[in-house]
Automatic annotation (TrEMBL):
Example GO molecular function: ATP hydrolysis activity
Family matches, as PROSITE patterns: ABC_TRANSPORTER_1, ABC_TRANSPORTER_2
Gene3D superfamilies: P-loop containing nucleotide triphosphate hydrolases
Keyword Signal: no
UniProt entry tagged with the keyword Mitochondrion: no
Name the record gives this protein: Phosphate import ATP-binding protein PstB
């Protein structure tokens, strides 16, 4: 990594950001020397990253550099992919998520995930939100209240309160994505992982999700993978830039290039590769 600072490249109006410290004072989730492999292919290598409490961290980088692979390692979603393996440590409140005796279902409850394409269940709006609390056996004094709270938190309640028994599939794409966020929130996670949550949405629906992320940040730690650098610059407190490298055997793999406050990454990147990427020279 060079020490010289490179020119600013992306200027966008950011949401009001916290004045985050240079290093997260309280990392909720940390990667220590994380490698993710698919069979013999070590797709992502040696990642060290801290995700700070009540912060939004964006993972950016060119296609295929391993952003989604890394994101899935944060809540053991890669366990569901045959041949996938994670080495190194992913610490959640200092506990290794891949340690002995850790229940991956509980991991996914505490660290929820929202996908690129809204994926509501073919059930009613109400049942989509109530699904997680029911299957995880959460003790709930009033399911109606919990559903209302989650939908309100996901900025969807006013639009759906009169049709809770209607099919979730009848909602617009943006509403479906907010429903998926409500479904994630309903099981009371600490962290929400978002894998390109706006890539299937129009600009208005995208802007609603970005607003929602800002309001969720007070209660949750959010990690978002995005291809949209303007989006990262608008919403994230910190940004990690990954890129593909080639090892001595000619094998491509994803590596972390630079991680810092979003303003620093976009306005004063230290590494030339970051500067080239955000100025559109590759990717
Ligand atoms: N299920 C899988 N089996 C084998 N290889 C995979 C699998 N999923 C991803 N890969 C490979 O791992 C590498 C990283 O892929 P990944 O999808 O994580 O990158 P990405 O940065 O999220 O890409 P994009 O921005 O295009 O979504 C790529 O070489 C990809 O082909």
């Amino acid at each position: 990594m060079s020490t010289e600072s490179h020119k600013p490249s992306v200027h966008v109006q950011a949401y009001h950001r916290r004045d985050v410290e240079d290093f997260p004072p309280q990392p909720v989730l940390s990667c220590e020397g994380v490698d993710v492999s698919y069979g013999d292919f070590r797709a992502v290598r040696n990642i060290d990253l801290d995700f700070g409490l009540n912060e939004i961290t964006a993972l950016i980088g060119p296609s295929g550099c391993g952003k989604s692979t890394l994101l899935r390692s944060l809540n053991r979603m890669n366990d569901l992919i045959e041949g996938a393996r994670v080495d190194g440590k992913v610490l959640f409140h200092q506990q290794d998520l891949y340690g002995k005796g850790v229940d991956p279902i509980e991991v996914r409850r505490r660290i929820g995930m929202v996908f690129q394409k809204p994926n509501p269940f073919p059930k009613s709006i109400y049942d989509n939100v109530a699904y997680g609390p029911r299957v995880t056996g959460m003790r709930v004094s009033s399911m109606d209240d919990l559903v209302e709270e989650a939908l309100t938190r996901a900025a969807l309640w006013d639009e759906v309160k009169d049709k809770l028994k209607g099919s979730a599939l009848g909602l617009s794409g943006g509403q479906q994505q907010r429903l998926c966020i409500a479904r994630t929130i309903a099981v009371k996670p600490d962290v929400i992982l978002m894998d390109e949550p706006c890539s299937a949405l129009d600009p208005i629906a995208t802007s609603r999700i970005e607003d929602l992320m800002q309001s969720l940040r007070d209660d949750y730690t959010i990690v978002i993978v995005t291809h949209n650098m303007q989006q990262a610059a608008r919403v994230a407190d910190r940004t990690a830039f990954l890129t593909a490298q080639v090892d001595e055997h000619g094998q491509r793999f994803g590596a972390l290039v630079e991680f810092g406050r979003t303003s620093q990454i976009f306005e004063r990147p230290v590494d030339e590769r970051t500067s080239d990427y955000i100025s559109g020279k590759f990717g």
